Amino acid sequence: MCDLLPASQPVEKIGKMKKLRRTLSESFSRIALKKEDSGFDEICVTKMSTRSCQGPDSVIKPLDTIPEDRKVRVQRTQSGFEPFEKPASQVKRVHSENNACINAKSSSAGKESPKLRRHSSPSSPTSPKFGKADSYEKLEKLGEGSYATVYKGKSKVNGKLVALKVIRLQEEEGTPFTAIREASLLKGLKHSNIVLLHDIIHTKETLTLVFEYVHTDLCQYMDKHPGGLHPDNVRLFLFQLLRGLSYIHQRYILHRDLKPQNLLISDTGELKLADFGLARAKSVPSHTYSNEVVTLWYRPPDVLLGSTDYSTCLDMWGVGCIFVEMIQGVAAFPGMKDIQDQLERIFLLFTDRFTVYSPKKLRQAWNKLGYVDHAEELASRFLQCSPKQRISAQTALNHEYFSQLPPRLWELTDMCSIFTVATVKLQPEAGDSIQVCGRTSSQSKVSSGAKH
User: Fold this and answer.
1) Any idea which architecture 216-443 has in CATH?
2) Of 161, 131, 325, which is closest to residue 227 (Cα–Cα)?
3) Which position has the higher pLDDT, 197 or 79?
4) What is the DSSP string of 51-109?
């Protein structure tokens, strides 16, 4: 009995070493597999003890059963075992009391990690940030509507001018659905001819949409230059309008409220679609569209008659009305009373309600269309009473009316302005010093009964 006792001690030590070896092999094997499968650049390994790896549910694989390409070498250090797959000269190791983080793609041990560098000097808690109400300074009121007030403002973050659309929230009614639509749609629209939504600020009392600041709109621009705009400027404005519409129509979005007041004009002449409160995404079929959309003067006859089965052609009638107004200097169909009066004005020009009309009909009503090459024919393609006969925005961009523009304009990316082309610029307008009164109240938006 005493002769066998010394011999049992080495056997016991060998068993413990094998068990420890199997435990470490299993742990490192899992780490290697996780790194290879996930593709992460960094793996953080918590320091291990032999007891933490043991348990009744542990599945232990001998080191010899691990494929050669997945074996890891083990280097013993004062703080414990650290696994790594590359030589120590190619691997950056960052030690902490509880974790060892291994960066597999560091090119040199002395180079600071971008993540560490970004957080090394945090900004002051009191510095202005996006998404905060105190990050913007109100300068002056620009206008007020039924549920929102628009201010000219300035960002305290970058010093740029902005437009602050402050929407008043009613506790019993919540956020107006038009504001929700506008914010949700504009967040995904990035185009030089669509107003840019910078920020959204939500408080208990208000919802504020922060837009890029554009100093005027097409309505004010035409009021400043009565009698019709310069033909070259009309061409540039219409091209930009169609460019923006083509962008949203390709994304199955209808604006549903095209009018000069909703077309912003920058000091360089850049036109931007704005006010998407009535816009709808048509990616999902719906039978609940409202016929109480689009300001009366720019609403197509099919919708005036009650149709709710419409698509992008809804916007194209409004384009035709705006086109005529820019050239002629007066609204195409200025209804003064109600829907019936509006329909009568349209059918005075188009006696047969749903046919294809001759451009000569338009010249009799708006003589200045005949002064510009191809303008009358293009206007007739927009102003078709039958929705299916109206030209699309994308097709209209290739109309002969635009043949005088530089070919480079059709190659621009979405976020590139047409005024980046050197030869493209606005022409001086006549009557720059003349001011006229604003539009009549009959142009107010009819949206109180709009369905959603």
Assistant:
1) Orthogonal Bundle (1.10)
2) 325
3) 197
4) TTT--TT-----GGGS-GGG--EEEEETTEEEEESS-GGG-EEEE-SSEEEEETT-S-T
Structure pTM?
A: 0.66
Closest by CA to 63, choosing from 92, 105, 34, 21, is 21
Query: 132 is written with which tokens?
Result: 């905060």
User: Beta 271-273 vs 280-281: how paired, if at all?
Assistant: unpaired
Active-site residue among 257, 275, 302, 315?
A: 257
Helical H segments across 277-369, by residue range? 301-304, 313-328, 339-349, 359-365
- What is the rounded (10 degree) CA torsion for 64, 65, 66, 69? 80
Count of beta carbons in the 10 Å neighbourhood of residue 351: 9
For 77, the token pair is 């250090």
What gap in Å lies between CA 119 and CA 234, rounded to an integer? 51
Domain 133-212 and domain 216-443, same fold? Reply is no
Backbone angles phi, psi at 367, to 5 degrees: -65, -30
Q: Which residues contact 228 (CB under 8 A, 6 or more apart)?
A: 326, 327, 328, 329, 368
Predicted local distance difference test score (pLDDT) of residue 194: 97
Question: Residue 22's pLDDT band (boundaries 50, 70, 90)?
Answer: low
At position 294, the amino acid (one-letter code) is: V
Q: Which residue has the higher pLDDT, 210 or 83?
A: 210
What is the rounded CA–CA span in Å between residue 267 and residue 270? 7
DSSP H helix total and E strand total for the chain = 11, 15
Tell me if residue 69 is catalytic. no
CA 321: distance to chain centroid? 28
CATH 3.30.590.20 describes domain 133-212:
no
Q: Angle, to 10 degrees, between the axis of helix 313-328 and the axis of helix 375-382?
A: 140
Query: How long a stretch of residues is the chain?
Result: 452
CB 81 within 8 A of CB 93: no
Half-sphere exposure of residue 111, counting CA atoms within 13 Å on the CB side? 11
At 113, which helix (H) or strand (E)?
Answer: none
Tokens of 264: 């912003």
Q: How far apart are CA 28 and CA 21, in angstroms?
A: 11
pLDDT value of position 428: 93
DSSP states of 30-45:
HHHHHHHHH--SEEEE
Give the start-to-end residue ranges of the domains of the chain: 56-107, 133-212, 216-443
